[in-house]
TrEMBL record, chain A:
It is a multi-pass membrane protein. CDD domains: TM_PBP2 (cd06261). The lineage of its organism: unclassified sequences, metagenomes, ecological metagenomes. Residues 84-272 form the ABC transmembrane type-1 domain. InterPro entries: BP-dependent_transpt_permease (IPR050366), MetI-like (IPR000515), MetI-like_sf (IPR035906). It is found in: Cell membrane. GO terms for cellular component: plasma membrane. It holds the Pfam family BPD_transp_1. The chain crosses the membrane at residues 21-44, 88-110, 196-217, 253-272. It comes from freshwater metagenome. GO terms for biological process: transmembrane transport. This is Unannotated protein.
TrEMBL record, chain B:
One of its GO terms (cellular component) is plasma membrane. GO terms for biological process: peptide transport. Pfam families: ABC_tran, oligo_HPY. Keywords: ATP-binding, Cell membrane, Membrane, Nucleotide-binding, Transport. InterPro entries: AAA+_ATPase, ABC_Ni/Peptide_Import, ABC_transporter-like_ATP-bd, ABC_transporter-like_CS, Oligopep_ABC_C, P-loop_NTPase. Signal peptide: none annotated. PROSITE patterns: ABC_TRANSPORTER_1, ABC_TRANSPORTER_2. It comes from freshwater metagenome. NCBIfam families: oligo_HPY. Residues 7-252 form the ABC transporter domain. One of its GO terms (molecular function) is ATP binding. SMART domains: AAA. It is a peripheral membrane protein. This is Unannotated protein.
UniProtKB/TrEMBL annotation, chain C:
InterPro entries: BPD_transp_1_N, MetI-like, MetI-like_sf. Residues 95-300 form the ABC transmembrane type-1 domain. PROSITE patterns: ABC_TM1 (PS50928). It is found in: Cell membrane. The keyword Nucleus does not apply. CDD domains: TM_PBP2 (cd06261). The keyword Transmembrane applies. It is a multi-pass membrane protein. Keywords: Cell membrane, Membrane, Transmembrane, Transmembrane helix, Transport. Its main location: membrane. This is Unannotated protein. GO terms for cellular component: plasma membrane. It comes from freshwater metagenome. SUPFAM superfamilies: MetI-like (SSF161098).
Length: 288, 325, 315
C-alpha cells in the first residue's frame, strides 16, 4: 500500500433521482379528465337523454356524433363527457368526505386515549362490511342516486382514513418536540392542528388520491349493477349497464366507458404514487 | 501464501448518486489486531462497515478496493461474498431488538450458520450452539435456543448476535456500535465477552463507536473519521494522549471524565462549535475548517494524511508535547 | 394462543351483534315504512296499515329486532312478500354458485399474486420487475365488470371456448357447472391478484430493508436465500391482513361478476330483491353475507396468530 494515500477524484455524478414521470403523467391525466368534466357542466354536444330512433347505433366517427350513438340514437360523446363528470364528482366527494370525517375521528382517537378503543373497534366493524352490500341495502331503502352513492362510499372509505390518520398522528405525537410543546403549556387542540395535522397532511393527500380512484371504480360498479346512478343522470358504469342490457356484450359501445374509467383510475393512481415519492423521497429510494 | 492482514481497505469511496459519504479511506487490520473507528454520527463510520460487508442498500456505489480472504469484496459476486459473510468475516449490529428474525427460533438462527458454513450435522450444530451460548454467559442455553427473539432481553439478544458472529471462527469481526442500545451495566458485560472472544480466537476487530472510553479499553489502534475521511490515525496511546488534529482534541475534550467535572463551579465540559457539514455541502478543502480554531487560508485545500507514525490530515496540526495532556 | 383465540372469538361475536343492529336500523329506520316500501308507490293508506298490522310492524323497533334475531338464530330468515319463497331456501339454492366462485377467485388471486409479487420485488430495479409492477397497476385500474365483459368477449364470443353466461346445476352436470365457473373465477381472480401483487411487492420490499434481513445476509445468506427463508416468511404477516380486506372486496366482486355472467348466485338474488324492494329477504341475506365475510376474516386472523410467534407464544 502506498504510504501517501491520494484522495480519490470525487466528481458529482448525475444523481439517481427518482423520475418525476409518474407524477407529471398522473397529474396531466387527472387534470384532463377534470377539465372534460368541467366542460360538460357548461357545454355538451347534445342532450344526453334526447333519443332519435332514426340515428340509432351510428358508428364511431360519424360527423356530428364523434363516438357514434347508442341503441336509442343518443349521442355517445355527450354521454361520455357527462359520465366522466359523474365519476370525478362522486369519486372526489366521497373521498373528501371520508378524508374529513376520518381525519377528525383518527386525530381524536390518537389524542384522547379514552376514545381510542371505541373509535378503532367501530372502524374495524365498518371495514368488515362489504361496501357494495352496504350500498345495495341503502339503495333498497332510500333509493339509488347521487347522494345515496356518495353516502355509501363515504361510510365505506372512512374507516381507512381513521386508521391511517390515527397511526400517523401517533407517530407525530411521539416526537420530542410535541413533549416540548406540552411542557410549554400548549393545549391538545393547538398541538393537533398546529403540529399533527401539517405533519400528516402529505400522507392524507396521497390517501385521498387512492380513495378518489377507489370511489370512481366503486361508483362504476354500482351503476353497472343498476343501483348507482340512473337516468336522467349519466355515468360511465351506467353506460356499460345499458350497453350490456340492451345489446349484449358484443356491443362496441362497451369499450369507451370502460376505457374512460381505466384512464381516470390509472391517472389517479399514478398521481398518488408520484405524490408519495415527491413527499417522501427517502421511501421511494428504498422501495420504489 | 497466507496474507497477514484480516482486512485491507484502499481508497474506499461510498456514494449515493452525487452524495459522497465516505471520501477515500484506507487502513489495514492485521490478524489479531483491534481497530477502533470513531467519529460523530454522519461521519461515514457505519457506511464504511456496510461497504466492507457488501451490505449497502441498493443505490449506493463504491470505488476503491477492500481486500479480505484473497478477494476484493467490492467487486465480488453476491455468491462469493455469501460464502465469506458469517464465515471469515462477521458483523455485530447496533440494535439487537431488530437484528434477529422475529419469526424464527434463536436456535435455528444459530445452527443455520454452523450448518451452512461448517457443514456439520444437525446434532453437532446444536451442541456447538449450546457451547457458544454457554460461552456468552447465557443462563439455560437450551431454553434460549427454543425461544423467539421477542422473549429475550436486549442484552441477551446482543450476546446471541455476538455468538452468531463468532460461530465459525472468523478472521475479522466488525462491531458497529455493539453496546449503544444497551443498558450501561449490560454494556460492560457484552464488551468483556467480545474482548475475550477476540483474544481467544485471534481475529481482527473493527469496533465502530462514538464512545471514546470503549475504544481506549478495547483497541490498540484508532482511526478518527470526520466528513467521510480519516483525519487522524495511530495507536491509542499516541492519539489519546497527544491528539494532533484539532478535531480529535475537541472530541476528547468533550468527553466527560472525572477530571473535567468541577462539582463546585459546574462542568468545564467543552463542545465543538458548529456541526458536521451536510453531505451536499461538503467543502473541497478540510471538512473541519469551519469549526476549527486553527483554520487558515491553507485549509481551503484538502490536507492528506502525513507520513509519521501518528498520521494526521491537517495543515496546522497541534504539536506533540512530551508530557501528555 | 388460547387467550388470543378467545379474544378473537369474543370480538367476532360482538362485531356480528353490532352489525346486525346496524343492518336492522339502516333498513327499518332509514327506509321508512316497510309496508309502504313493499306495496309500492300506488298503495292506499288503508292497505299499508293493514299490512303493517299483519307483519307486526307497529310494535316497537327493539321488539321487532329481537324477533328477527331470534328467528334468524333458529334458521328462520323470513320470506319474500310476493313470491312467498323462504329466504333460507333461496340462499341454500344459490350458495353452490357463489361460494365456489368467491373462494375460487380468492385462491386463484393468491396463487397468481404471491409468486408474481415476489418476482417484482426481487427485480424491482430491473425492467422485468417494473413490467410486473406496471401490469398490476393497470389491473388495479380495470373495473371488475369490464374485465369480465372483455374476457367473455374474447374467450366466449370470439374463441367460443367457454360459456359466456348461464348456469347448469351441479347435480345435473358438474362438468357444465365447472365450465360455467371458469371465466367468472378467472375474472375475479386476476382482478384481485392485481391488488394483491402490488401489496406482496411492497411487503417484501419493506421486509428486505429490515435489520434482521441484513443480519441474515451478514451471516451468509445470499440475496435469494434471504428472500425466501427470511423475507417471504416475514412478509406473509402484513399480507395476511391484506387478505382480510380482500375478503370484503371479494364479495363485492362476486356480486358484479354474477351479474356479468348471468349466474344465479346469492348476490344476484340480493340484487333482484333490492330492485323488488323485498326488505325482509334483503335484511336476512345481507346478514348471512356479513357472517360469511367475517368468518373468512376470523380464519385469516387465526392464521395470522399461527404465523406470528409474538402472538402465538406470547410474552
Amino acid at each position: 500500500m502506498s504510504e501517501n494515500i491520494k484522495a480519490p477524484k470525487i466528481r458529482a455524478k448525475k444523481g439517481r433521482k427518482k423520475s418525476r414521470l409518474p407524477l407529471i403523467m398522473g397529474a396531466s391525466i387527472t387534470l384532463i379528465m377534470v377539465i372534460i368534466g368541467l366542460i360538460s357542466i357548461f357545454w355538451i354536444p347534445l342532450d344526453v337523454n334526447e333519443s332519435d330512433p332514426s340515428i340509432r347505433m351510428l358508428p364511431i366517427g360519424t360527423p356530428g356524433h364523434l363516438f357514434g350513438t347508442d341503441y336509442l340514437g343518443r349521442d355517445v360523446t355527450s354521454m361520455l363527457m357527462t359520465g366522466v363528470r359523474t365519476s370525478v364528482i362522486i369519486g372526489a366527494c366521497s373521498a373528501f368526505l371520508a378524508l374529513f370525517i376520518g381525519t377528525m375521528f383518527g386525530m381524536l382517537a390518537a389524542s384522547v386515549s379514552k376514545l381510542d378503543e371505541p373509535i378503532m373497534r367501530t372502524a374495524d366493524i365498518f371495514m368488515a362490511m362489504p361496501g357494495i352490500i352496504f350500498a345495495l341495502v341503502l339503495a333498497s331503502t332510500i333509493g339509488a342516486g347521487y347522494l345515496t352513492t356518495i353516502f355509501a362510499l363515504t361510510s365505506f372509505f372512512t374507516p381507512a382514513f381513521v386508521r391511517v390518520t390515527r397511526a400517523s398522528s401517533m407517530r407525530v405525537l411521539a416526537e420530542d418536540y410535541i413533549s416540548v410543546a406540552r411542557l410549554y403549556g400548549r393545549g391538545k387542540l393547538f398541538i393537533t392542528f398546529r403540529h399533527v395535522l401539517p405533519n400528516i397532511s402529505s400522507i392524507l393527500i396521497v390517501q385521498f388520491t387512492i380513495y378518489f380512484a377507489a370511489g370512481v371504480l366503486s361508483e362504476a360498479g354500482l351503476s353497472f349493477l343498476g343501483v348507482g346512478i340512473n337516468r336522467p343522470s349519466v355515468s360511465l358504469g351506467m353506460m356499460l349497464h345499458e350497453a350490456v342490457e340492451q345489446i349484449g356484450i358484443t356491443d362496441p359501445l362497451g369499450v369507451w366507458p370502460g376505457l374512460g374509467i381505466v384512464i381516470l383510475v390509472i391517472g389517479l393512481n399514478l398521481l398518488g404514487d408520484g405524490l408519495r415519492d415527491y413527499f417522501d423521497p427517502r421511501f421511494s429510494q428504498r422501495a420504489r | 501464501m497466507m496474507e497477514d492482514f484480516a482486512l485491507k481497505v484502499e481508497n474506499l469511496v461510498v456514494s449515493l448518486g452525487d452524495l459522497v459519504a465516505v471520501r477515500g479511506i484506507s487502513f489495514v487490520i492485521k490478524k489479531g489486531e483491534r481497530w477502533g473507528l470513531v467519529g460523530e454520527s454522519g461521519a461515514g463510520k457505519s457506511l464504511t462497515a456496510l461497504a466492507i460487508m457488501g451490505l449497502l442498500q441498493d443505490g449506493w456505489d463504491t470505488s476503491g478496493a477492500v481486500w479480505h480472504d484473497g478477494i476484493n469484496l467490492l467487486t465480488a459476486s453476491d455468491k462469493k461474498l455469501s460464502t465469506r459473510r458469517g464465515r471469515t468475516m462477521s458483523m455485530v449490529f447496533q440494535d439487537p431488538t431488530t437484528a434477529l428474525n422475529p419469526v424464527a427460533k434463536v436456535g435455528n438462527q444459530i445452527t443455520w450458520i454452523l450448518r451452512h458454513h461448517m457443514h456439520v450435522n444437525e446434532k453437532e450444530a446444536i451442541e456447538q450452539s449450546l457451547a457458544l451460548l454457554n460461552k456468552m454467559n447465557l443462563p439455560r442455553p437450551e431454553s434460549i435456543m427454543d425461544s423467539y427473539p421477542h422473549q429475550l432481553s436486549g442484552g441477551q439478544r446482543q450476546r446471541i448476535m455476538i455468538a452468531m458472529a463468532l460461530a465459525c471462527y472468523p478472521e475479522l469481526i466488525i462491531a458497529d456500535e455493539p453496546t449503544t442500545a444497551l443498558d450501561v451495566t449490560v454494556q460492560k458485560q457484552v464488551l468483556r465477552l467480545l474482548d475475550t472472544a477476540v483474544t481467544e480466537r485471534n481475529c481482527g476487530l473493527l469496533l465502530i463507536t462514538h464512545d471514546l472510553p470503549v475504544i481506549a479499553a478495547m483497541c490498540e489502534n484508532v482511526a478518527v473519521m470526520y466528513g467521510g475521511r480519516i483525519v487522524e490515525t495511530g495507536s491509542i496511546a499516541e492519539v489519546f494522549t497527544n491528539p494532533r488534529h484539532p478535531y480529535t482534541k475537541g472530541l476528547l475534550a468533550s468527553q466527560p471524565t472525572l477530571d473535567n467535572i468541577d462539582l463546585e463551579g459546574g462542568t468545564r465540559l467543552t463542545s465543538i462549535r458548529g456541526s458536521v457539514p451536510p453531505l451536499y455541502a461538503m467543502p473541497d478543502g478540510c471538512a473541519f475548517a469551519e469549526r476549527c480554531d486553527f483554520a487558515t487560508d491553507k485549509c481551503k485545500e484538502l490536507p492528506e494524511l502525513d507520513d509519521q507514525s501518528q498520521r494526521v490530515a491537517c495543515w496546522n496540526p497541534i504539536a506533540i508535547t512530551q508530557k501528555g495532556a | 394462543m388460547g387467550r388470543f383465540i378467545l379474544r378473537r372469538l369474543v370480538f367476532f361475536a360482538i362485531t356480528l351483534l353490532i352489525t346486525s343492529v346496524l343492518i336492522f336500523a339502516l333498513i327499518r329506520a332509514a327506509g321508512g315504512n316497510v309496508a309502504a316500501i313493499l306495496l309500492g308507490k300506488n298503495s292506499s293508506a288503508e292497505e299499508i296499515l293493514k299490512l303493517s298490522t299483519e307483519l307486526g310492524l307497529e310494535r316497537p323497533l327493539p321488539v321487532q329486532y329481537f324477533e328477527w334475531m331470534n328467528n334468524f338464530l333458529h334458521g328462520d330468515l323470513g320470506q319474500a312478500f310476493r313470491s312467498k319463497q323462504l329466504a333460507s331456501h333461496l340462499i341454500w339454492t344459490q350458495a353452490p354458485v357463489s361460494v365456489p366462485l368467491s373462494l375460487g377467485g380468492l385462491l386463484l388471486a393468491i396463487i397468481i399474486a404471491i409468486p408474481l409479487g415476489t418476482y417484482a420485488a426481487k427485480n424491482f430495479n430491473k425492467p422485468s420487475g417494473a413490467f410486473v409492477a406496471l401490469l398490476s397497476q393497470i389491473g388495479i385500474a380495470i373495473p371488475v365488470f369490464w374485465a369480465g365483459l372483455l374476457l367473455s368477449l374474447v374467450f366466449g364470443v370470439h374463441l367460443g371456448l367457454l360459456p359466456t353466461g348461464g348456469w347448469v346445476p351441479w347435480t345435473e352436470n358438474w362438468v357444465g357447472s365447472l365450465r360455467s365457473l371458469v371465466l367468472p373465477v378467472f375474472t375475479l381472480g386476476i382482478v384481485m391478484a392485481s391488488t394483491l401483487t402490488r401489496y406482496t411487492r411492497t411487503a417484501i420490499l419493506d421486509v428486505m430493508n429490515e435489520d434482521f434481513v441484513r443480519t441474515a445476509r451478514a451471516s451468509g445468506m445470499s440475496r435469494r436465500v434471504a428472500l425466501i427463508k427470511v423475507g417471504l416468511r416475514n412478509a406473509s404477516l402484513p399480507l395476511v391482513t391484506v387478505l382480510g380486506l380482500l375478503a370484503a372486496e371479494m364479495v363485492g366482486g362476486t356480486v358484479i361478476i354474477e351479474k356479468v355472467y348471468s349466474l344465479p348466485g346469492i348476490s344476484r338474488m340480493i340484487l333482484d330483491n333490492v330492485t323488488a324492494r323485498e326488505v325482509v329477504v334483503v335484511q336476512s341475506t345481507v346478514m348471512v353475507i356479513v357472517i360469511y365475510v367475517m368468518t373468512i376474516n376470523l380464519i385469516i386472523d387465526l392464521a395470522y396468530g399461527l404465523l406470528d410467534p409474538r402472538i402465538r407464544v406470547g410474552k
